[in-house]
Amino acid sequence: MGFQYRVALAFILIQSLIMSTLSVPTLQLDTAQAVLELPSRHGPAGLPVANATRSFWIDTPGANPLAKEGSQGELTSDADVCIIGSGITGVSAAYHLAKHFEGREDGGTPVKVVILEARDFCSGATGRNGGHLTPSVFLDFVNRELAYGPDEARKTYALENYTASELINIIEAESLQRAVDFVASSHLSLLVTERELNFAKADFAAAQAAGLDLDHIEWVSGKDMSETYGTSFPASRYPGHNLWPLKLVAELYKIALKTAPSKFSLKLHTNTPVTSITSASSTSRRWSLSTPRGAIQCSYVIHATNGYSSHLLPHLQGPVGIVPTRGQVLALRSASPLSEVTTASWGGNEGFEYWFPRPVESGKEENPLIILGGGREASGPNFEYYVTDDSVVQKTVGKVLRDFLPGVFPGKYEKGREPEMEWTGIMGFTKIGDPFVGPVVKSSELDTREFEGQFIAAGYSGHGMTRAYACAEAVAGMVAAKLTGTKWETPEWLPRHYLTTERP
Ligand SMILES: Cc1cc2nc3c(=O)[nH]c(=O)nc-3n(C[C@H](O)[C@H](O)[C@H](O)COP(=O)(O)OP(=O)(O)OC[C@H]3O[C@@H](n4cnc5c(N)ncnc54)[C@H](O)[C@@H]3O)c2cc1C
């Protein structure tokens, strides 16, 4: 009996015994990719909308003390560097710039850096996401190797490992585990169709042949999954982490503030959307950023606006650039205690769905809150591409998400239970699935002069928690090199095809 036939038989057998079912359609990734690549009649993204849905991370009382920071009073009018966006990219860029100037002996005035945020602090995707900090380990290796060769393919995983381990180092060095609700556990990647299982096995074999360290990967059969976790789908299992993303970003901001106060000054202006960027009239600064509160002039600009990038950079609209894409998340109380649910985090169905249980507060609650996102593949033919309105939720997505866990774990989750919170957020998708990192260029011309001094790190395609910090480090390094008249060296973990100047 051939391997494929045996796998198919095992699938049918296990499914019929336990009957895990899915409320969402399967095998939608290829269609979603084809739709993403279609020419678009949508123009550039708008600005972030007002009255965004309330997310658990942002709207839990006390969670966002920086929400309105710098929103009143006088706007800073001059800076060396303006960072647009206060999500994990913008704040990481400020953090890396601060670190760059730490311990420098050269005197002179401190480098002035300003973060401008359209809404409240960290109210974009970072304040609305699924909370996972789990690097991709081998999935998609075959495609990446085909597209870029084995070295580049390896680097895409190296960058994610680097990001996760650096963020964990910071959390440990600053003793932030409780402050950011950091959880280190297992991550299970559910393989819900035979095709997904076969692809995962092929990715694993190719990654192993290319020398990736995969010792920490385990394959768990449907039978073992059903005994241990109560779902019949097989899975790969590896270390995973989750945390409170907004709180991590707030801590990075605080570290940046105190890192090198005599060499580096940092100011945050929330509720200050940048509406346009034009050449500055002054000779000392290159750019003038308009906001409803007045203008600010600066020499360097870092675009950390992710799904909204094309608002200020219209050449990044459509599939050649960054496509805003709405995602949806529920915070749903589990019907069972954490001991039964386990602390593991999960993903599955080609990555469309992802979930994990929040840590429980001892004495206050027994059953954990599950943060569950996905359902975009059930939203209709457009997969929520070009949707920038996160002030509403999508009904069909909400319905399939409510039905998802009771179907995957029969008997373990209560059917019909209403979530405690439900929200949406805007991601930034690119057709190659990888971000734009580096100087702003018009891709057809690779000409940096029109945007001299402007940089971007954006377009993580729904997977930014393990990439944004490192991409921001690269861009901050480029800006710091300009400020200090030194040469920027490409870090060994940065895939070259992420660079705006080398994108395919
Ligand atoms: C529902 C959802 C679930 C996700 N789940 C995960 C996950 O589990 N794991 C993972 O790795 N990734 C996940 N992601 C993706 C991840 O959250 C993003 O890749 C990452 O947060 C991007 O960070 P960022 O700082 O680049 O963008 P954002 O956090 O979106 O920050 C951009 C900021 O720029 C501001 N802005 C935009 N335009 C302007 C302007 N003109 N002027 C001033 N400010 C402006 C916005 O208000 C926003 O605050 C998810 C995303 C969503 C939406």
TrEMBL record:
Arranged from A to Z, the UniProt key words for this protein are:
Signal
**Record's GO cellular component terms:** cytoplasm
Annotated ranges, domain FAD dependent oxidoreductase: 80-476
Pfam families on file? DAO
Q: Which InterPro entries match?
A: FAD-dep_OxRdtase, FAD/NAD-bd_sf
Q: Which gene encodes it?
A: puuB
Q: Tell me which PANTHER family the record gives.
A: FAD DEPENDENT OXIDOREDUCTASE DOMAIN-CONTAINING PROTEIN, SARCOSINE DEHYDROGENASE-RELATED
Q: What is this protein called?
A: Gamma-glutamylputrescine oxidoreductase
